[in-house]
């Protein structure tokens, strides 16, 4: 519960794959400053960190270790059968639940970790953002089994198979809203810490794969910037962009970079602390009046 007169603070964790682990660095700064989070909105890899925070996790190194294991289970097994089906889809048929990675081990790990946890059991409200594979629209999951919401939100297209929730095939929410600030606004947040991740551009476009990666990175970056700019102009809440600078490309398997990613999350949050302290010095009512 939010104490009277204190602004409601939301932490929004955008899509970013392994880079989302930097949110643990941001959390360490907030805890050091004694700043409490009132709600969490997350998509993609950020959903795993968001759940850990919402469930009341206290030991940050332990949270990082669990995140690392989850990433290892997510992208460790390539399905050659699915690759063949993708190449010969015209003759073998296409299953909308397609994914190049085997997810049996990952699903089992998540089921064992979550143990039937529901959103209603969490200590901090959590909203997971996914996307409807057929309609392309944003789907916000805030009730029921957390497993379904997290698995759907982290279903990166082509890699992990989509996940069915209430009759809808859902995939990674980052494809339609890589930084879901609007959800935090709708839930009544006064201050929003929006942690986003830009995809680095290719150092050299010397192959078809590099070209595809470049196009996807440019598209994703522009989408995130455009959405952030729109919500900042709408000004229904104070939005603070926390954008870590990793200085290099980060792949899903670059687990050795985790200490660096966490540290960059700390530095990015520390850069925004002066403004955040200023906002926290104002009562919630003043923030609401200033944003209307």
Percent range of helical residues: 40-55%
Number of strands: 8
Order of helices and strands: EHEHHHHHEEHEEHEHEHH
Main structural class: alpha/beta
What is the multimeric organization of the chains shown? single chain
Instruction: Report the biggest beta sheet as strand number plus sense, adding barrel if it closes.
Output: 8 strands, mixed
The coarse overall form would be globular
Tell me the radius of gyration. 19 Å
- What share of residues are in beta strands? 5-15%
Gap from first CA to last CA: 24 Å
**Which residues form runs of ≥5 with pLDDT under 50?**
none
What's the mean pLDDT score?
Answer: 83
Please give the count of helices: 11
Explain what you see:
The protein contains eleven helices and eight strands. It has 292 residues and is of the alpha/beta class. Strands 1, 2, 3, 4, 5, 6, 7 and 8 form an eight-stranded mixed sheet that branches. Helix 1 packs across helix 10 (258-280). The longest helix has 27 residues, at 208-234. The two termini are 24 Å apart.
List the helices and strands and how they pair.
Blueprint: E1 9-13, H1 23-32, E2 39-43, H2 46-54, H3 60-74, H4 80-87, H5 89-92, H6 104-114, E3 126-132, E4 138-141, H7 146-153, E5 163-165, E6 168-172, H8 181-186, E7 191-195, H9 208-234, E8 238-242, H10 258-280, H11 284-290
Helix pairs in contact: 1-10
Q: What is shown here, in short?
A:
The chain has 292 residues and is of the alpha/beta class.
What attributes does this structure have?
292 residues; alpha/beta; 8-stranded mixed beta sheet; 44% helix
